[in-house]
From TrEMBL:
<keyword id="KW-1133">Transmembrane helix</keyword>
<feature type="transmembrane region" description="Helical">
    <location>
        <begin position="17"/>
        <end position="38"/>
    </location>
</feature>
<feature type="domain" description="ABC transmembrane type-1">
    <location>
        <begin position="19"/>
        <end position="301"/>
    </location>
</feature>
<feature type="transmembrane region" description="Helical">
    <location>
        <begin position="137"/>
        <end position="154"/>
    </location>
</feature>
<keyword id="KW-0812">Transmembrane</keyword>
<feature type="transmembrane region" description="Helical">
    <location>
        <begin position="248"/>
        <end position="266"/>
    </location>
</feature>
<dbReference type="InterPro" id="IPR027417">
    <property type="entry name" value="P-loop_NTPase"/>
</dbReference>
<keyword id="KW-0547">Nucleotide-binding</keyword>
<dbReference type="Pfam" id="PF00005">
    <property type="entry name" value="ABC_tran"/>
</dbReference>
<dbReference type="InterPro" id="IPR003593">
    <property type="entry name" value="AAA+_ATPase"/>
</dbReference>
<dbReference type="InterPro" id="IPR011527">
    <property type="entry name" value="ABC1_TM_dom"/>
</dbReference>
<keyword id="KW-0067">ATP-binding</keyword>
<dbReference type="InterPro" id="IPR017871">
    <property type="entry name" value="ABC_transporter-like_CS"/>
</dbReference>
<dbReference type="GO" id="GO:0005524">
    <property type="term" value="F:ATP binding"/>
</dbReference>
<protein>
    <submittedName>
        <fullName>ABC transporter ATP-binding protein</fullName>
    </submittedName>
</protein>
<dbReference type="InterPro" id="IPR036640">
    <property type="entry name" value="ABC1_TM_sf"/>
</dbReference>
<dbReference type="InterPro" id="IPR039421">
    <property type="entry name" value="Type_1_exporter"/>
</dbReference>
Amino acid sequence: METFKKLKAYYWPYKKYFFISMFFLLFVTGITVVYPIILQKTIDDVILQGNYKWIPYLAFGFVGIMILKGITTFIQQYCGDLFGITSVYRLRNELYEKLQFLPFSYYDNAKTGDLMSRLTADVEAFRFFLSFGFTELLRFFLLITVSFGVMFYYSPSLTFVTLASLPFLAITVYKFDKAVHPAFRGIRKSFGKLNTNVQENISGINTVKSLSREEFQINKFNSSNGDYKDKYLFTSDIWAKYFPLMEFLGNVSVVTLLAYGGYLVMNGNLQPGELVAFYSLVWYIIWPIMNLGFTINLFSQSKASGERLLEILEVDEKIKDHDSVVDVDKMKGDVEFNHVTLNYTEHDEAALEDITFKAESGKVIGLIGSTGSGKTSITQLMTRFYEPTKGEILIDGKTLSDYSLKSLRNNIGVVLQESFLFSSTIKANISYGRPEATMEEIIEAAKMAQAHDFITELPDGYDTKLGERGLGLSGGQKQRIAIARALCTDPSILILDDATSAVDMETEFRIQKALKNVMSDRTTFIIAHRISSLKHADEILVMENGKIVERGVHDFLLKNNGPYQRIYDIQYQDQKKILQTQGR
Ligand SMILES: Nc1ncnc2c1ncn2[C@@H]1O[C@H](COP(=O)(O)OP(=O)(O)OP(=O)(O)O)[C@@H](O)[C@H]1O
């Protein structure tokens, strides 16, 4: 019940529907138990006594009760559904909201397909229990208590004899629950894996096809699909083993009832009508106990699903606003790193070590270095995607955590090498960070990013709809739209992380020229592998193994006999000559 307690905030606000449903359930159950009593009266007091004139009245009474039962059942079911549907509507929204604020470190290990199955199948399983499961559990207790009461009223001894086998039935049901719950958790997990498989395959279809790995992918899917099938079969196996046993134990009760009840009727200790009523009532007890398997099934599924939902809801949002954060509309853009060290996880080696630099507003800082040397990590810290392990980062003299995350990120425009474009129009993609931007502003941003010309050549211009992930555009075109998107927010700090790697040198030069005009009132970080991309920077930081190993302007670094000069030599001089001087 712990899972349900933890998720209470999502369904308890709608308790009104739950209680209305429960209230009508009392009626439905009450009416159900009245049937055998009427039957008993009809046999014992009307037929056996020869009072046949009562039969039409009883028949009409029956019809009336049936209509009443129909109406109460409708209200009970509708309100039960309303309870489930409205609760998970809120739950789904909150899960989605949570996904927006989960730290990057969570996404480092998360699998999209699995997350999607949690937001769909698991939420659905939870809803099913809210809508039907709760009601079924209550119906179970009500039917058993009321039926037991009526049976006890008719004949205590027959009641005990008939129900003697029920404790065994209860034990079997308990064992069934113990076995079936982990099995359902397995099914859910396997379904998540299956989804991940499909999602990864679709996202990486280019790689799959270009390396002719279709067979491999099919086999991988087959194996996940097989695992899903096996998990289901395993659960069916448990079900198939336990269900006949439950049915057998239920039937033992009926046989005992007929034997002992018949004996009592023969001896005149029980009325025939009472035996008939008993026969119906005993099923009102056996049937819910056997059906408990189904209810427990629902309960187990929804408990397993609820646990998976809680795994998302309970993730610690490590990076969030503290109480006294400030909102700054427009930052100046002075960035300062003071002895900053970053370890992504406790077990990882430092990705950045003792990084110190200052970047004043209006300046362009270039970051260069081998792959994995820590260039991107510097920008990830600036945007507070991750927190430094040691040291502090200041913008305009204030620690990053003093700013609200929203205002911090609104003031920083980031363009990545692999920019994600949404499947909407080019216009909507460019104005994504500032939906209120005017068409002139959108065009202005596109012009700076050297994207305007190719956009206007498209048949629908700015209204061209992009496919998923910007499909239909070249790598360089996508990058330019991403640059326009960042520029459209007019950020105080602009980070271009390998953002022009896919555009040709001439276009890159034109982008840089256009940016120069607007760079004066913002700080720009250019991460690049090509020296040509950052040689005009006011300061170039050369990174190696998480450390800044060299810094200065291009002309200085060229004569510094350090790693920068080596990169320059490799890029601009005859490689053979370098290899010769190294004696290789
Ligand atoms: N999310 C992460 N979790 C754990 N380790 C990470 C993560 N991101 C980066 N790293 C590690 O941190 C180190 C620095 O990576 P970073 O991405 O900053 O390098 P980079 O210089 O930008 O490389 P590239 O030029 O290839 O983009 C690498 O060793 C990398 O494996």
